[in-house]
Design goal:
elongated, Rossmann fold, alpha/beta, four-stranded antiparallel sheet, disordered N terminus, 16 helices, eight-stranded mixed sheet, 2 domains
């Protein structure tokens, strides 16, 4: 494990972004719309020190695998720079790139797909040696293949040399994939969900093997996984990704036990408890992951966040502001249905609209006492009279179809720095977190997050 005080950077990522589908479609051209690329990775900064095992965790679709492929040059970044051992990998000569591809390898998620079914084990593991012109001939390469197969636990290696992938178990196939990556003696290995396709009973054996191989081969690992228990077991440091952003990073133990970013807290709250008697804390988040083609402004997590920051002059509870802000968002995206109402029914319609619009789909432990069946008692919310009047006025305008007035009222009353400004990674304790809660300018909440249950 690399020491924090004697860190030797091997991989340095600076403001790296990767956008897909940047071309403009026919319909967009006809309608005069600009192309909306998928922002798979956005302005990522990360340093991986020599000898570390760095973990990348997050929900499916957050950009983990794309980042891994950028690091091994399967993709080129749209913006930013990636340096390996002090060299910009986007500006390598042909010879330097050949050396880079020897020193940097990747182990893919699915050993059933990553191995050529028409090649024997020997041919699969020997191929990187031939491509990189390593070895003084067939016999030399054969001895190297046998050595590595034995090292990865396929012993005696001679019994596996002529086997085809279909004749191997899933664990044996993944060991062949590991051998293929290590046979060229790399310095850095990207492991993309390396055990997720394997039976639970053999995962621990493969992970322990990879730890042993790190010491034996002097490796630096990047582990990509949505399995947080794997990240905790394997990694020295961990970075958490959300919608293409790294939102928290630091020593794994600190990230797990003392999470700073609200998304990281929610991510670990979502992990099932093994002990049936343990108290379960479910994630206090709303909604689904937004479309990466059209990510939210400001902090990308703010539409789902339980700790969204009210404006400085807000005198009600944080929970009341969160619900009012969610009402605003639902109005803006057209998620609130309004029935036609005459003047005598309007007051009733306004009450019903607010009762349903201020309710949140949350686990029972995070609901208000006055919240049942998708309805909330508005009078139970600790909300300033001015804010409640603004909601009622906006609801009336919504019923009458005055959408522009609705948006203006809600934007004026329910605004937040979380929506307006993208937070940068800032040091907080042993971690770095990209959250406005840790900025001195954010309502004097320098290091203390508001309690969403208050």
């Amino acid at each position: 494990m690399a020491s924090e005080h004697n860190a030797d950077p091997l991989v340095e990522i600076e403001n790296v972004s990767k956008l897909f589908d940047m071309s403009q479609g026919v319909v967009d051209r006809l309608l005069g719309k600009e192309a909306q690329p998928v922002r798979a990775v956005q302005n990522v900064n990360l340093t991986i020190n020599r000898g570390d095992i760095m973990g990348i965790a997050g929900e499916s679709g957050c950009g983990k695998t794309t980042l891994g492929k950028l690091l091994v040059k399967l993709y080129d970044p749209t913006e930013g720079t990636i340096s390996f051992d002090g060299r910009d990998v986007t500006e390598l000569s042909r010879e330097d790139e050949r050396v880079f591809r020897q020193r940097v390898q990747m182990i893919f998620q699915d050993p059933f797909e990553s191995l050529n079914p028409r090649m024997t084990v020997f041919q699969s593991v020997e191929e990187p040696l031939k491509i990189n012109d390593i070895g003084e001939g067939y016999q030399d390469r054969r001895e190297r293949v046998i050595q590595v197969l034995n090292d990865v636990g396929l012993s005696p290696a001679e019994a596996y040399l002529n086997e085809f992938p279909k004749e191997l178990s899933g664990g044996e196939r993944q060991r062949v994939a590991i051998a293929r990556a290590l046979v060229v003696n790399p310095d850095f290995v990207v492991c993309d969900e390396p055990v997720s396709m394997l039976d639970v009973s053999i995962r621990a054996g493969v992970l322990n093997l990879m730890k042993e191989l790190q010491d034996e081969y002097g490796l630096t690992y990047l582990f990509i996984s949505h399995d947080l228990s794997l990240i905790r077991y394997m990694c020295d440091r961990t970075a958490i990704m959300y919608l293409g952003d790294i939102i928290e990073q630091g020593p794994t133990t600190d990230v797990v036990t003392n999470s700073k970013h609200p998304y990281t807290e929610a991510l670990f709250d979502a992990v099932p408890e093994i002990d049936p008697g343990a108290e379960r804390h479910r994630a206090n988040v709303t909604g689904e992951v937004p479309d990466p083609r059209n990510p939210p402004t400001g902090c990308r997590f703010h539409p789902r966040c339980a700790k969204i920051i009210p404006p400085d002059d807000w005198t009600g509870s944080q929970e009341a502001f969160r619900r009012a802000f969610q009402f605003k968002r639902r109005v803006l995206i057209g998620d609130i249905d309004v029935e036609d109402a005459n003047e005598t029914e309007q007051r009733v319609m306004v009450d019903r609209l607010l009762e349903s619009g201020l309710a949140l789909e949350l686990p029972e432990e995070h609901r208000l006492d006055a919240e049942t069946k998708g309805q909330v008692d508005v009078s139970a919310l600790d909300m300033p009279r001015q804010a409640e009047n603004a909601l009622r006025s906006a609801a009336r305008d919504l019923i009458e179809g005055n959408i522009d007035e609705v948006k203006e009222q809600l934007d004026r009353e329910f605004h937040t720095v979380c929506e307006q400004s993208h937070p940068e990674l800032r040091q907080t304790g042993e971690q770095q977190a990209a959250c406005h809660l840790f900025e001195s300018s954010a309502s004097n909440r320098e290091t203390v997050a508001p309690d969403a249950s208050d």
